[in-house]
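Standup notes
- DV: blocked on the single-chain target, sequence here:
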Amino acid sequence: MGVILFSASHSMAADKKETKETVEQPTVPIELKIVQDDFEYKIDGRPDPFKPFLKPKIELDPNEIIESNEVLTGMQLFEPGQLTLVAIMMAGKQHIAMVQDSTGKGYVLNTGMKIGRHGEIISIDANKVTIEETAVTRAKKEIKSRIDMVLNKEGEK
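- DV (later): unblocked, structure below
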């Protein structure tokens, strides 16, 4: 426990109207005691006082597409729009497509191969590759779309 001393002086001349004589009172020390409480806030079993009482109601869109947590590998790392179809070849009775990414690296595509997050190659024809994308919404509704990657003729872009 610490003790702090303050001195206070009181002038009687300040209380009375100003006179020529001023009388000074002796300085009286004032003793202040610092009290230290042993109070400790127990948080066990109590709610956090800084959290709001009401939680905002979150409206979820039932048409929002849900992304799966599967690890993407191979051609699933590329969306069809990131690739350029450069060649289609025949291997026996099956068509094989060759695509190129923006860095110029080439890849081979086969029917049934997964491409992008939601796509699968459903057919490779003489001049195009057809990809079917299937996305699942929050309401478990499947949204299907088709993307055609068309082979440009020589000299076209």
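- Follow-up: The helical segments are 12-15.
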